[in-house]
Write a structure and sequence with these properties.
single chain, 381 residues, alpha/beta, Aspartate Aminotransferase, domain 1, 2 domains, seven-stranded mixed sheet, four-stranded antiparallel sheet, globular, binds glutamine
């Protein structure tokens, strides 16, 4: 039997590849982005309660209404946008699914999508499987900022969408208000859509603020904004997220969603609906995760690695310039095998595998995990 592959150039995701190697070599896994500490036990009890109360059947395909109501309130409070819970929010099995569904909703054969590289590894295959063409624009190393003139040059009559991501995976860079204004200017009067990956919205450090496309009416009217409960509540394995978009866009999104996943698991939605008004859970998250970034960078000072700035997300890049001439992938594999620490080569986030001698470290870990990892990296050569 032969399958004419829809993704002939795609292998296994770098996260799985590195996690499998990490397990094989009993390495500390600072590669794939997930916390190694527990989640809130009250939220677990609420799932238990929902199940015991018999909330185990399908909820509405767009998501439990009570949860959507809570989300609409949160969006009003944080981003001053009065979205309608009925026709502007859909609960999804994770942020990645929300992004995929947005691309499937939008793209026809030959449509171009601008992505910023390094880019989260699902974007390109998501675009290509839907017949789209990826137009990469490099972020400016080492600040990983956007050169808007460069973006302007890449826009053509075929540009269907631009995908942005802030806080940014893998670099931890943030988009500023000025970036949003530049983006607004660029798309004003065009039919270009925006997909905004904001799954790390609450993981912002040093008293900086997350800027959402939801705050800019000119942008929101053309946007699918994707979020993740997993990142906010330390439960990436729940695979729960949601998408927010204006009614006309969301109507089409739901046509795709209803014949794919249809609806997400119910008990978690009941639990989240009850838990969502606990504001501290997300308002203090930046401080909590930011202190882990600081703890890790302090411990890493004694190693030969040099940090690049990280203002948000689970991640910080470290440079090994001057330490080795290996490619990022080769070096990352050797770190697992010889030093038993797993990371992610940033080259995996580029279509043409750009090499800057930087690795991505996930610091959303217990302090003892971070201390032990740094210790193992003390004498890397
Ligand atoms: N978002 C996670 C990361 O960047 C990985 C999720 C996955 O493995 N697909 O590490």
């Amino acid at each position: 039997m032969f399958i004419h592959s829809k993704l002939p150039n795609v292998g296994t995701t770098i996260f799985t590849e590195m996690s499998v190697l990490a397990q094989q070599y009993n390495a500390i896994n600072l590669g794939q982005g997930f916390p190694d500490f527990g989640m809130n036990s009250q939220l677990i009890s609420l799932v238990d309660k929902a199940m015991s109360n018999g909330n185990n059947q399908y909820v509405h395909m767009n998501g439990l209404p009570a949860l959507r109501e809570q989300l609409a309130e949160k969006v009003k409070k944080l981003y001053n946008n009065s979205i309608n819970a009925n026709d502007e929010i859909t609960v999804t099995p994770g942020g990645t699914y929300a992004i995929y569904t947005a691309f499937t909703t939008l793209l026809n054969k030959g449509d171009e999508v601008i992505i910023f590289e390094p880019a989260y590894d699902s974007y390109s295959p998501n675009i290509e499987i839907n017949g789209g063409i990826v137009i990469p624009v490099s972020l400016q190393y080492p600040a990983y900022s956007i050169d808007w003139d460069l973006v302007k040059q890449k826009i053509s009559s075929k540009t269907k969408a631009i995908i942005i991501n802030s806080p940014h995976n893998p670099t931890g860079a943030l988009l500023s208000e000025n970036d949003m204004r530049e983006l607004s200017k660029l798309v004003e009067g065009t039919g270009i859509f925006i997909i905004s990956d904001e799954v790390y919205e609450h993981l912002v450090f040093d008293d900086k603020k997350h800027i959402s496309v939801l705050q800019f009416p000119e942008l929101y009217k053309r946007s699918f904004v994707c979020f993740s409960f997993g990142k906010t509540y330390h439960c990436t394995g729940w695979k729960m997220g949601y998408c927010i978009a204006p009614p006309g866009l969301m109507k089409e999104f739901r046509k795709v969603h209803q014949f794919n996943c249809f609806t997400c698991n119910s008990p978690m939605q009941f639990a989240l609906a009850e838990f969502l008004d606990q504001e501290k859970e997300y308002s203090e998250l930046g401080k909590f995760i930011g202190s882990k970034r600081d703890y890790f960078s302090e411990a890493m000072k004694a190693t030969p690695f040099k940090p690049l700035p990280s203002s948000g997300s689970y991640f910080q890049l470290y440079s090994y310039d001057g330490l080795s001439n290996e490619t990022e992938k080769e070096f990352a594999v050797r770190l697992i095998k010889d030093y038993r620490v797993a990371t992610i080569p940033v080259s995996a986030f580029y279509k043409d595998k750009q090499e800057n001698k930087v690795l991505r470290f996930c610091f959303a870990k217990k302090e003892e995990t971070l201390a032990e990892a740094a210790k193992r990296l003390l004498h890397v050569q």
